[in-house]
Amino acid sequence: MLRFLVTLLIWGGLALSARGETLTAISYENQTVLLQLSGEVTPNVFTMGNGKPRVVVDLPNSDVNLNGKTLVKGPQTIDGQGSVKRVRLAARDGGVRAVLDLADGAKMVDYKVVGSALLIQLNGKVVSSVPRSAIPEVTGPRYFENTIPYPRLAPNMAIKPVRKPVIVIDPGHGGRDPGAVGRKGTHEKKITWASAQELQKQLLATGRYTVMMTRSKDVYVDHAERIRIARAGGADLFISIHADSAGNKTARGASVYTLADRAKNRSKRIVNSQNWIMDVDLTAQSDPVGDILVDLAQRSTATQSEKFADLLLTELGGTTQLIGNSHRRAGYFVLLAPDVPAVLLEMGFLSNLQDEKLLNSTAHRKKVLKSVTRSINKYFDSQG
Question: Is the pTM of this model over 0.70?
Answer without folding.
Answer: no
